[in-house]
C-alpha cells in the first residue's frame, strides 16, 4: 500500500470509508497513518466542527477516508453525534471503521453497539493493543470477532503495527470475502413488543434514508432530533398515537441501554482477561504525580516553561538567522532595481520583504509551540491539565473543560473560541468565550519573542514569563468578577475522561504541526500581505517620505495618546494594525523602520518598551477572533463588551506601566 501525495492515475471507482470512534482512541493517528499529507481540513457545511477528508490507495484501489467527529454515542445530544450518524445514514459510506481502545474496551463498545444498528458494514480497529498489554489487559481479537460477528483487526497505530492488516481487511470486506453476521443488541424483552408496535406505526412515514427499525429504537430512547423529524413527517393523528405510546413507556430507554450493557458484558467476558486487582498499571503510577495538587501543578508549570525555553533557545536563533537572510535578500533586490521607479523598489523591499518577510521569520517559533502542544495532546497529558486546573476554574464558576479551549488559545484564539462548544453549561460556555481572547496566542507570543530580546536582552525570558503570568492572572481576576456579578455565581459539575498514557505518534504530531503552519502561511499570503501593502502605501504616498505620508499625518494626530505610554506614533500605528492579524505589529514596524534589530532598542526606554508589550498582549484580538466571538455568542452586545474590556485594560495598564516605570 502507499499513502501521502500521489501522482499516479486513479481507478474510476473510489470507495468511501467513514472513520469513527470515541475521543482519545487514536483515531487521528489511524487517519494520518493512512492518508499522510493527502488530506484536507475544513468545517462541515454550516457547522463549526472540524471535518477531515483524506485519500489513500491499496493494491491499485483508491479510497476516500472521512474522519468523523469523536463521539461517545450516536444519540443527538451534541453536534458531533448528529454529524457522525447523519453522515453514515445520508452519505452511505461503503464501510465504517470503528476505532476502539483495547485498554478501555468496555466503554468503547457502546459506540460499536450503536454503529451496528446502522446500514453500513462495520470493521473494528482494535487499537492501542500495546497500551492494553502495558496495563496487564489481554484481549483476544479472534474471540472478539466471533462474539461480534464482524471483522476485528488488532493494532498499535502509534507504532505503525497492524496498518497493513487493516488495509487487507478493508479490501476483503468491500469485496465480500469476510464473514459478516453482526450480533446486534436491541432492547430487553419487557419492551420488545412496544418497539415492534412503534415500528409498525411509523413505517409508512419514515423518510429516506432512515431505517424504520432504527428510528423506532431512537424514538424510544427519547431522541429529540428524530422526534422532531417524525412529527413533521407524520399526520398529526398518527403522531399523537406514537407520542402517547412513547410517553406511556418512558422507562424503555433503560431497557435499551440495559440490552447494550448486557451485550457489552458478554463480549468482555468472552474476549478480555483483566489484570489482577493488585496490579498497578503505568497510568495509575504516573497519575499519582501528574494529578497530585502540588506535584502535578509543578509538572504542568514545567511543561509550559519548557515550551518557552525551547522557543528562546532553539527558535529565536533560527528566527534571527532568517531575519538576517531576508534583510540581505531585500538589499539585493533594492540594488537590482536601482534603475526602476523608486516606488517599485520600496514596494518590494519595504512592503513585501519588510512586512510579510519579517512575519515569515515566525515559522520556527510557531513550529516549536505546535510541536509541544501536539506532543502533550498525543500522550494523553492534556486531560490531566484540565483535571489539575478544575479547582482554579471552579472559583470562576467554570470547570476543567474550560481549561482545554483556554489552553488551545495559546495556539490560536479562533479555534479556542470555537472549542468552547465542548462546555455543556450555556453560562459557563459564554464566560469561557469572553475569557479566551486574554490568552496570549502564538501570534502575540511571536511578536513578544521578536521584541523582548531586543529591548531586554538576557532578561527577555523573565519578561515573557511575567507577561504571560500577568495575562493569566488578569484572566482569572476578570473571570472571578464576571462570575460573581454578571453570571449570578453559578457553578457547574465537572465530569471528564482521563485517557491512558500512551506513546506519541510523531507522524500525527508532524501533520498537526504541518497543517497549523500551512494555515499560518495561508494567512500570511492573504491577510498579512494585504495589510503590509496597505501600511506601506499609506506610509509612502503621497510624498515618498514617512513623515509626510498619510500614515504620518494620522500618526501625529495620535501622538498625544501614544505619549501617555511613551510610544512614538510609529509604534502606535504598528499596534493598531495588529487588529487585522497580530503578526502585523512586526510587519508594520518592518515597513516603517526597515531592519529594526539595531535601531529599535534605542528608540524606547525600558518602561516604554514594557508598556508596548503589555499593550500588545492585552489589545483587541484579530478580526478572525472577533468574528468567532460574534459567531459563538450570537450577540453583538457580548462581542462589543469583550472588545471594550480589552481596549480599556490594554490602554489603562500600558499607561500605568509606563508612568510607574518613569518613577523608578
The helix/strand class is alpha/beta
Note the overall shape.
Answer: elongated
Number of strands: 10
Distance between the termini: 68 Å
Rg over C-alpha atoms, rounded to the nearest angstrom: 29 Å
- Mean pLDDT reading: 83
The fraction of residues in strands falls at 5-15%
What report would you give on this structure?
The chain has 664 residues and is α/β, with parallel strands linked by helices. It has 30 helices and ten strands. A hairpin with a 2-residue loop joins strand 4 (50-58) and strand 5. Helix 23 (550-557) crosses helix 25 (569-576).
What structural keywords apply?
664 residues; alpha/beta; 8-stranded mixed β-sheet; two-stranded antiparallel ribbon; elongated
Topology, please?
Elements: E1 2-3, E2 14-21, H1 27-35, E3 39-43, E4 50-58, E5 61-67, H2 79-90, E6 95-101, H3 105-115, E7 122-127, H4 129-134, E8 138-139, H5 141-148, E9 152-154, H6 163-174, H7 192-202, H8 212-221, H9 224-233, H10 236-248, H11 252-271, E10 272-273, H12 282-290, H13 295-336, H14 342-360, H15 363-378, H16 381-394, H17 400-408, H18 413-418, H19 426-435, H20 442-456, H21 460-485, H22 506-540, H23 550-557, H24 559-563, H25 569-576, H26 584-593, H27 600-603, H28 606-618, H29 623-633, H30 636-663
Parallel strand pairs: 2-5, 2-6, 6-7, 7-9
Antiparallel strand pairs: 1-4, 3-4, 4-5, 8-10
Short description:
This protein is α/β, with parallel strands linked by helices and 664 residues long. The chain has helices spanning 27-35, 79-90, 105-115, 129-134, 141-148, 163-174, 192-202, 212-221, 224-233, 236-248, 252-271, 282-290, 295-336, 342-360, 363-378, 381-394, 400-408, 413-418, 426-435, 442-456, 460-485, 506-540, 550-557, 559-563, 569-576, 584-593, 600-603, 606-618, 623-633, 636-663, and strands at 2-3, 14-21, 39-43, 50-58, 61-67, 95-101, 122-127, 138-139, 152-154, 272-273.
Amino acid at each position: 500500500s502507499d499513502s501521502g501525495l500521489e501522482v499516479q492515475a486513479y481507478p474510476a471507482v473510489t470507495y468511501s470509508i467513514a472513520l469513527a470512534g470515541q475521543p482519545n482512541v487514536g483515531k487521528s493517528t489511524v487517519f494520518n497513518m493512512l492518508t499522510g499529507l493527502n488530506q484536507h481540513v475544513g468545517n462541515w457545511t454550516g457547522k463549526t466542527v472540524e471535518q477531515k477528508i483524506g485519500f489513500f490507495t491499496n493494491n491499485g484501489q483508491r479510497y476516500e477516508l472521512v474522519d468523523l467527529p469523536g463521539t461517545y454515542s450516536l444519540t443527538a445530544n451534541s453536534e458531533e453525534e448528529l454529524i457522525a450518524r447523519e453522515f453514515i445514514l445520508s452519505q452511505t459510506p461503503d464501510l465504517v471503521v470503528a476505532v476502539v481502545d483495547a485498554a478501555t474496551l468496555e466503554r468503547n463498545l457502546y459506540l460499536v453497539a450503536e454503529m451496528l444498528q446502522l446500514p453500513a458494514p462495520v470493521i473494528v480497529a482494535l487499537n492501542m493493543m500495546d497500551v492494553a498489554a502495558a496495563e496487564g489487559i489481554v484481549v483476544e481479537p479472534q474471540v472478539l470477532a466471533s462474539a461480534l460477528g464482524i471483522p476485528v483487526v488488532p493494532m498499535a497505530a502509534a507504532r505503525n503495527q497492524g496498518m497493513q492488516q487493516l488495509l487487507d481487511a478493508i479490501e476483503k470486506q468491500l469485496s465480500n470475502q469476510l464473514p459478516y453476521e453482526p450480533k446486534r443488541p436491541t432492547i430487553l424483552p419487557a419492551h420488545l413488543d412496544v418497539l415492534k408496535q412503534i415500528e409498525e406505526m411509523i413505517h409508512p412515514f419514515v423518510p429516506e434514508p432512515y431505517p424504520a427499525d432504527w428510528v423506532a429504537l431512537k424514538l424510544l430512547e427519547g431522541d429529540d432530533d428524530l422526534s422532531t423529524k417524525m412529527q413533521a413527517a407524520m399526520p398529526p393523528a398518527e403522531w399523537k398515537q406514537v407520542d402517547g405510546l412513547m410517553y406511556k413507556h418512558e422507562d424503555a430507554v433503560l431497557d435499551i441501554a440495559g440490552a447494550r450493557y448486557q451485550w457489552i458484558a458478554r463480549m468482555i467476558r468472552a474476549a478480555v482477561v483483566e489484570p489482577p486487582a493488585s496490579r498497578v498499571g503505568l497510568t495509575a503510577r504516573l497519575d499519582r504525580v501528574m494529578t497530585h495538587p502540588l506535584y502535578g501543578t509543578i509538572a504542568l508549570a514545567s511543561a509550559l516553561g519548557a515550551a518557552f525555553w525551547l522557543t528562546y533557545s532553539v527558535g529565536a536563533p533560527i528566527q534571527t538567522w532568517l531575519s538576517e537572510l531576508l534583510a540581505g535578500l531585500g538589499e539585493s533586490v533594492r540594488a537590482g532595481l536601482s534603475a526602476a521607479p523608486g516606488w517599485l523598489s520600496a514596494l518590494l523591499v519595504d512592503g513585501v520583504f519588510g512586512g510579510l518577510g519579517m512575519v515569515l521569520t515566525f515559522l520556527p517559533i510557531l513550529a516549536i509551540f505546535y510541536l509541544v502542544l501536539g506532543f502533550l495532546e498525543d500522550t494523553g497529558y492534556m486531560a490531566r491539565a484540565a483535571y489539575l486546573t478544575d479547582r482554579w476554574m471552579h472559583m470562576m464558576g467554570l470547570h476543567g473543560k474550560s481549561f482545554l479551549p483556554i489552553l488551545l488559545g495559546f495556539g490560536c484564539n479562533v479555534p479556542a473560541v470555537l472549542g468552547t462548544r465542548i462546555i455543556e453549561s450555556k453560562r459557563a460556555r459564554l464566560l469561557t468565550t469572553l475569557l479566551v481572547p486574554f490568552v496570549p496566542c502564538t501570534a502575540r507570543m511571536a511578536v513578544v519573542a521578536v521584541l523582548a530580546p531586543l529591548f531586554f536582552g538576557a532578561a527577555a525570558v523573565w519578561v515573557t514569563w511575567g507577561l504571560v503570568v500577568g495575562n493569566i492572572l488578569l484572566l482569572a481576576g476578570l473571570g472571578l468578577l464576571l462570575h460573581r456579578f454578571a453570571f449570578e455565581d453559578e457553578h457547574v459539575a465537572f465530569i471528564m475522561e482521563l485517557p491512558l498514557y500512551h506513546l506519541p505518534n510523531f507522524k500525527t504530531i508532524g501533520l498537526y504541526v504541518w497543517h497549523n503552519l500551512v494555515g499560518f502561511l495561508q494567512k500570511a499570503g492573504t491577510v498579512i500581505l494585504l495589510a503590509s501593502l496597505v501600511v506601506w502605501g499609506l506610509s509612502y504616498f503621497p510624498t515618498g517620505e514617512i513623515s509626510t505620508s498619510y500614515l504620518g499625518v494620522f500618526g501625529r494626530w495620535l501622538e498625544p495618546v501614544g505619549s501617555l505610554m511613551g510610544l512614538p506614533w510609529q509604534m502606535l500605528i504598528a499596534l493598531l494594525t495588529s487588529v487585522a492579524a497580530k503578526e502585523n505589529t512586526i510587519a508594520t514596524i518592518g515597513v516603517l523602520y526597515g531592519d529594526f534589530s539595531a535601531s529599535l532598542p534605542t528608540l524606547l526606554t525600558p518602561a516604554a518598551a514594557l508598556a508596548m508589550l503589555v499593550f500588545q498582549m492585552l489589545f483587541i484580538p484579530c478580526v478572525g477572533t472577533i468574528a468567532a466571538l460574534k459567531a459563538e455568542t450570537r450577540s453583538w452586545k457580548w462581542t462589543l463588551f469583550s472588545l471594550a474590556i480589552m481596549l480599556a485594560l490594554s490602554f489603562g495598564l500600558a499607561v500605568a506601566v509606563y508612568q510607574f516605570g518613569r518613577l523608578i
